[in-house]
Predict the structure.
Amino acid sequence: MSTDFDAIVIGAGHNGLITAAYLARAGRRTLLVEARSSVGGCASSEDVLGARVNICNCDHLTFRTTPVHDELDLAGHGLRYLDVEPAQMNLTWDGSAAWPIFHDVERTIEALAATHPGEVDGYRRYVADAMPVVKLIFGAAADLPTRPRLVRGVLAKGGKGAMTLLRWSRMSAADVLRQYFTSDAILGPALAAGPIVWGLSPETPGTGLGAIPMALRHVAQVGRPEGGSGMLPAALARAVEAHGGHIRTSARVTAIDCSATGVHGVQLDDATQITAPVVVSACDPHRTFLSWLRNPPPGAGPLIERWKSTPHHEGFESKIDAVVTTLPRYLSFDDQLGKRLGFDPLVASAMISPSVADLHTGAQLKLSGHVMDRPVMFANVPTVLDPSMAPAGQHVFSLEVLFTPYSLQGGWPGSVEPQRWLDRYSGMVEPGFVESITDWRAMTPDRYEGEFHLPQGHATSFAGGPMAALRAKPRELTRYTTPIRGLFLTGAATFPGAGIWGASGRNCALTVLRAT
């Protein structure tokens, strides 16, 4: 029986785009369907407020460790990265000296020696232990995560980092980092970039691999696509079409059609039925297995029951986008340090964190629908590095705020919270910055749900790490396959997880090509 396509990919976030591009490149007749009117999802950019703003964070790090850029010739499709140096600025609410993380370890240590000299020895020990772990993780994510391949990857590196990875994976991230550091000036921002991004307290057992973000920046180079984060999905879309793939936007899937032998296509909200022997869902697994499956084969029963009992967590991230005429200047940053080491602190994103104790309290407040008084903030001014994103004389300001629960007490419409975040931030910088804002908007979890189809404002993120991939549990998230013949998964919910990574999209495509 003839079919309309060889493969249908649902969801045009960056992982869905990557999967579709690889399948099309391999000669498969591929259709990518997307509910929104444009591709990219949370990796995209929008022209609003008279400037270009990124839907989520603009810093790309893990994606640059994959071969996707070269294999799909994304440079030929218009993608150009600007290196971000320093890779990150670190600040705390208590006013401790701001300090940078550079891609180069020694340059970072030179800055620490000037700002927090008592932490230098600990930082050296930390990077010596953490960098081999990071390299193992990047190596595992860059290849199909089968047990033999994972074991070979460990052996190829002489086993270096494997025991540390195993030990840390059983600890809390806070306990891992307390082996090396004593100051909240180091611990707070380091943990804010780890388990806090997952919505968890840093004291949670099993979050130990959330201690590696500082080391990530020494192994890989942080970069930003020139023209905004959305240039990545734009280049990927061009790659899909250049290889003969088709993209259909404003096409909402309402069903994945199955038969006794496997999938045979999808149905759209306009009742259009499209057939294919392969369907890849780059969307939330709960929606995939519990809402879309129509007439699944009996063998899918245990999978469906397991997902019925798997909780779907609420979103907890918000973001303010603003256009400003004055650049922020951090009160805790020593201008002489910037001159001596030759860097502009505004090139990097700034992590602003409370103490470890407050981070733990913030996790509890989130569960009760409240926001911390001094929350975790991730701020940047992307136009300092890339002026093309705003008109002359203006800048784009981005402020991500974590532990901002979907079920906010009193609800998000009409809430004073976003304005309060700006007021709080203004106390970190020289006077006049907030007053220079000409226009702004707040993207809160309810808006991510309504505008980006994220259930309860949250994109399910794989949190199992390499150990779960080694055990292949759960299989649909670590091996991208399901008990339903022809149905595959990709996206943030699958290994290696969230962020602008793309390894899941590539690995899923390679899995499909091997299996069909």
Remarks:
- The first strand starts at residue 7 and ends at 10.
